[in-house]
Specification:
Elements lengths: L3 H19 L2 E4 L19 H7 L5 E5 L1 E3 L18 E2 L5 E6 L17 E4 L16 E3 L5 E4 L2 E3 L2 E2 L12 E3 L3 E4 L2 E3 L2 E2 L6 E3 L3 E4 L2 E3 L2 E2 L6 E3 L2 E2 L2 E3 L2 E3 L16 E12 L2 E3 L10 E10 L2 E3 L6 E11 L2 E3 L6 H4 L4 E3 L2 E2 L87 H11 L19 H9 L6
Parallel strand pairs: 1-2, 2-5, 3-6, 4-7, 5-8, 6-9, 7-11, 8-12, 9-13, 10-14, 11-15, 12-16, 13-17, 14-18, 15-19, 16-21, 17-22, 19-23, 20-23, 21-23, 22-24, 23-25, 24-26, 25-27, 26-28, 27-29, 28-30
The structure holds calcium ion (4 copies).
Length: 469
């Protein structure tokens, strides 16, 4: 055929073009009623597992707000009730939730608070935990996996073997980054009620709350790892060692042989365990910087064997720690420590941190001794935000020198965007600069967390003008 070569060329071009258009983004929306091939919001897959089955390394799976269950896909067409079903995220895949999706004019509008995207293990009878998925989210192998913007809940790892008795919320065997996720109300018969993880990970801007482990690591269990980081996370109300006959550790976090692990700008609060180590149990080396560790019982810290550094942090209202333990710890510097009995040359204090009790958690009140009392020298280069994603280093005592505070929160007036604590013209300049930014991931002025700085955010800024609360 005379045109066959040209025809083939054109066909290849069409294929290449369509590949370049579609490769990378796969759409999921339980409300979509189009062709269901995942090519757009209108034609999105209705079931997340359909997208995860075809996603390859480099792809981004965008998921609209709604509740998704792991025991259904288009092939099954119905909920199978299979407790072994999970959302399995493959090598190199990015999974993002919080999108508006097909029911909105701008399907790509993203706000994980406005469009909560829930991965629920509550299959079978609704509200009955006994027939739930063992692990809601899994990774089997691979690296460069990213999960962002989901609530992961309802996992019940009460099975008969190790792989079904760990990691109720997430059972992870891959190098992974998790951000803007809430892992809550999951259970494991043995370890890692919220998350069980066997590889390097970065966890940031996330919450691990109300998870339970029958043995160790109510919130998070990390058996063997190097260099992982937890940044700007809330780890609270987790519980471990609830099963009779087991001797477990770590109500909030269990780290076994974890070296060069860091926890920064995080709140570790209200965790419980039967044995010492209600907040953290670790073996290895752990550096905790700018954290607020409160109301954990009993003894908040338990060190199996290893080195521990605590900088610019507040440790308050926990079951009092055995003071003799601190003698072995090389570095608690610039910390606010209840019942502090050691060396003030390290700039540690033992004064009431003055938490804001007005329903705002553990932010500091004006006049707190922890304001501008941390050590900026110990800040990591990328430690630029506090737990509320506000600017990390602010001149909270108005002495002309911006210094980091102790704890997870930096004192400043609400709405502040720069190093002077009040909201003035200089803050407006920060807003104006971010208004013109095309990529607003991490913009300070994105008050409503929708990855955009617009007039909605301006209204928030204006409401704080010269008002400090
Ligand atoms: Ca159920
Ligand atoms: Ca400060
Ligand atoms: Ca300011
Ligand atoms: Ca915004």
């Amino acid at each position: 055929m005379r045109f066959s070569a040209l025809f083939r060329y054109v066909l290849l071009m069409i294929v290449a073009f369509s590949f370049s258009v579609h490769a990378g983004i796969i759409y999921v929306d339980g409300e979509a009623d189009g062709s269901g091939d995942g090519s757009s919001w209108a034609n999105a897959y209705m079931h997340l597992n359909d997208a995860l089955a075809v996603a390859v390394s480099g792809d981004e799976v965008r998921t609209a707000g709604g509740v998704y269950y792991p025991d259904i896909n288009s092939a099954s067409g119905t909920h199978t009730g299979d407790r072994l079903s999970s959302f399995v995220v493959g090598n190199g895949v990015t999974l993002v939730g919080g999108y508006a999706g097909s029911q909105y004019a701008d399907g790509d509008y993203r706000n994980f608070e406005l469009h909560p995207t829930v991965l629920s293990g509550d299959i079978g009878a609704s509200g009955d935990l006994s027939d739930n998925s063992y692990s809601v989210v899994k990774t089997v192998s691979g690296q460069n996996i990213r999960i962002e913007g989901f609530t992961i809940t309802g996992g019940n790892a009460n099975g008969e073997n190790l792989s079904t008795r760990r990691g109720g919320g997430m059972y992870l065997n891959s190098r992974i980054t998790i951000s803007n996720c809430t892992i809550t109300n999951n259970y494991a018969f043995l370890d890692g009620g919220g998350i069980y993880l066997s590889s390097y990970f970065e966890l940031f801007d996330s919450a691990i709350t109300d998870n339970i482990a029958g043995r160790s690591g109510g919130g998070l269990y990390l058996p063997n790892d190097h260099g992982s980081r937890i940044t700007r996370c809330r780890i609270s109300r987790n519980q471990s060692e609830t099963n009779e006959g087991y001797f477990g550790y770590g109500g909030g976090i269990y780290l076994g042989n974890a070296y060069y692990m860091t926890i920064t700008d995080s709140l570790i609060a209200d965790n419980r365990s039967k044995n010492p180590g209600s907040a953290i149990r670790f073996t290895g080396s752990l550096m905790v910087i700018n954290c607020t560790i409160v109301n954990n019982h009993p003894e908040w810290l338990n060190i199996g064997n290893g080195n521990f550094w605590l900088h610019s942090s507040i440790v308050w209202g926990n079951t009092p720690i055995d003071d003799s333990l601190w003698g072995d710890i090389p570095g608690a510097w610039n910390c606010c420590l209840q019942n502090n009995t050691f060396d003030e040359q390290r700039c540690n204090i033992s004064e009431d941190p003055q938490f804001d009790s007005d329903g705002k958690g553990y932010r500091l009140l004006a006049g707190s001794p922890c304001i501008d009392a941390g050590l900026s020298l110990f800040l990591f280069e990328d430690q630029t935000r506090d737990l509320d994603k506000r600017l990390r280093v602010v001149d909270g005592d108005y002495n002309g020198q911006p210094t980091v505070d102790m704890g997870a929160y930096e004192y400043a007036c609400a709405g502040n965007l720069d190093v002077t604590p009040t909201v003035t013209m200089t803050d407006f300049a920060v807003f104006a600069a971010e208004l013109q930014s095309t990529d607003c991931t991490g913009c300070l002025a994105d008050f409503n967390h929708d990855y955009r700085v617009d007039m909605t955010d301006f209204a928030v800024l204006a409401s704080y003008w010269l008002v400090c609360n």
